[in-house]
UniProtKB/TrEMBL annotation:
Catalyzes the NADPH-dependent reduction of a wide variety of carbonyl-containing compounds to their corresponding alcohols. Displays enzymatic activity towards endogenous metabolites such as aromatic and aliphatic aldehydes, ketones, monosaccharides and bile acids. Acts as an aldehyde-detoxification enzyme. Also acts as an inhibitor of protein S-nitrosylation by mediating degradation of S-nitroso-coenzyme A (S-nitroso-CoA), a cofactor required to S-nitrosylate proteins. Also acts as a S-nitroso-glutathione reductase by catalyzing the NADPH-dependent reduction of S-nitrosoglutathione. GO terms for molecular function: alcohol dehydrogenase (NADP+) activity. Residues 56-332 form the NADP-dependent oxidoreductase domain. SUPFAM superfamilies: NAD(P)-linked oxidoreductase. It comes from Clupea harengus. One of its GO terms (biological process) is aldehyde catabolic process. This is alcohol dehydrogenase (NADP(+)). Its EC number is 1.1.1.2. The active site is at residue 89. Substrate binds at residue 152. Keywords: Cell membrane, Cytoplasm, Membrane, NADP, Oxidoreductase. The keyword NADP applies. Belongs to the aldo/keto reductase family.
Length: 364
C-alpha cells in the first residue's frame, strides 16, 4: 500500500481557505459582490423616527417586467440597500421575486438590511381602502412589512380597480376625499406593525403643513421630482424645518421618458456639470447624484442596465466643493420634467390640473 505524506500545514490551510471561498461563492447570492460598496454613516439620512434611510436607492418607475428583477439583483450585489417601489408601477411582484432570492440566513442578506419603500395609489385614498392596498403590495413584494409607505399623490381618483378611471372625453374621474383622512388611515398601519414609517409624495408645502396640523404620527419623508433644473431649494428648507427628509425622483431628468419634447433642456449635457465630471473623473450622472446626496437628499435613480446601476452608487468616494455645489444649484430653472398628462381633443394637457388638490399650482 502506497503511503502519501501529509500535506504541510500551510498548504492544508490554503486548501481549506479555497474550499471555504468556493462554498460561499456557490451558497450566497453574490455574497462576495455585496462588498463592492460598504455603507458609512454619512451614506444615510436619519428619519424623525430615528431610523436610517440610505441616501442612494434604486428607482423602479418605468422598469418594465422582465427586466426589473435582474435590476434589483444587480443593485443588491452592487451595494444598494434601498429599493423604491410603487403599486402603480406594475412590477412589484417581480421585485418580490428578486427579494425572495436575496433574503435568507444562507443568502448573504437579511430583510432588515434593505430599506424598502412603496406607495399608495390614487384610487385607494378612502380610509377603508388603505390597508387592503398595502396588504396587496406586501403580498406582491413577498414582505411582512415596509420600511416606508407614501401617499403617492395628494389628489384622489374615483375608487375602484381601474387605476386611471376616465370620462368619455378622456379626462380623469376624480374623488374629493380629503388626504388628511387618508393620513389617519396610514397612521394605523404603523400601529399594526405593517409599516415602519409613513410619508408623502408630490405634496406641496401647504399640503405638508395641512397634514402636520392633524398628524398623530408625523410624515418622515417627502418624495418629489428633484434635479439641478428643479433644485427644490425652498421646499427642501421647508422640509428640514419640519423634520422631513426629502427624496428626489427622476434625479437625472428621466431621459428615457416616452413623452420627451425635442426642445426641452437636456440635463446630462449641461456644460458646468461636464466640467466637474472631467475634474473628478466621474460621469455627469455621478456629479448630479453626488450633488443631491451631499445636500442630504435621498436619491433614487432608475436603471435596468448593470453598468449604470454600478456607476450610480459610486458617488461616496469624493466631495464637491462648496462653490461647486452652489454652481450646480444655480442651474435651477424650476423646470418640471414629470407633469402627468392626458390627451383631450387631440392635445396633451396636465392630467390633474382640475383637481382641487393638484399640487403644482403653489410656488413650492
Amino acid at each position: 500500500m502506497k503511503i502519501f505524506p501529509k500535506p504541510k500545514p500551510h498548504i492544508a490551510g490554503l486548501r481549506r481557505a479555497r474550499a471555504i471561498i468556493f462554498f460561499c461563492q456557490n451558497l450566497c447570492l453574490g455574497c462576495i459582490y455585496f462588498q463592492v460598496h460598504r455603507a458609512r454613516m454619512n451614506d444615510f439620512a436619519v428619519l424623525n423616527t430615528g431610523r436610517k434611510m440610505p441616501l442612494l436607492g434604486l428607482g423602479t418607475w418605468k422598469s418594465e417586467p422582465g427586466k426589473v428583477k435582474q435590476a434589483v439583483i444587480w443593485s443588491l450585489q452592487s451595494g444598494y440597500r434601498h429599493i423604491d417601489c410603487a403599486a402603480i408601477y406594475g412590477n412589484e411582484s417581480e421585485i418580490g421575486q428578486a427579494l425572495q432570492e436575496a433574503f435568507g440566513p444562507d443568502k448573504g442578506l437579511r430583510r432588515e438590511d434593505v430599506f424598502i419603500t412603496s406607495k399608495l395609489w390614487n384610487t385607494h385614498h378612502h380610509p377603508e381602502d388603505v390597508e387592503p392596498a398595502l396588504l396587496k403590495t406586501l403580498k406582491d413584494l413577498s414582505l411582512e412589512y415596509l420600511d416606508l409607505y407614501l401617499i403617492h399623490w395628494p389628489n384622489a381618483f374615483q375608487r375602484g380597480d381601474t387605476p386611471f378611471p376616465k370620462k368619455e372625453d378622456g379626462t380623469l374621474l376624480y374623488d374629493d376625499i380629503d388626504y388628511k383622512l387618508t393620513w389617519a388611515a396610514m397612521e394605523k398601519l404603523v400601529g399594526k406593525g405593517l409599516v415602519r414609517a409613513i410619508g408623502l409624495s408630490n405634496f406641496n408645502s401647504r399640503q405638508i403643513d395641512d397634514v402636520l396640523s392633524v398628524a398623530n404620527i408625523k410624515p418622515t419623508v417627502l418624495q418629489v421630482e428633484g434635479h439641478p433644473y428643479l433644485a427644490q431649494v425652498e421646499l427642501l428648507a421647508h422640509c428640514k424645518e419640519r423634520g422631513l427628509v426629502m427624496t428626489a425622483y427622476s434625479p437625472l431628468g428621466s431621459p428615457d421618458r416616452a413623452w420627451k419634447h425635442p426642445d426641452e433642456p437636456v440635463l446630462l449635457e449641461e456644460a458646468d456639470i461636464a466640467t466637474l465630471a472631467k475634474k473628478y473623473n466621474k460621469t455627469p450622472a455621478q456629479i448630479i447624484l453626488r450633488w443631491q446626496t451631499q445636500r442630504g437628499i435621498v436619491t433614487i435613480p432608475k436603471s435596468v442596465t448593470e453598468s449604470r446601476i454600478k456607476e450610480n452608487i459610486q458617488v461616496f468616494d469624493f466631495t464637491l466643493e462648496a462653490e461647486e455645489m452652489s454652481s450646480i444649484t444655480a442651474l435651477n430653472r424650476n423646470w418640471r420634467y414629470i407633469v402627468p398628462t392626458i390627451t383631450v381633443d387631440g392635445k396633451p394637457v396636465p392630467r390633474d390640473a382640475g383637481h382641487p388638490h393638484y399640487p403644482f399650482n403653489d410656488p413650492y
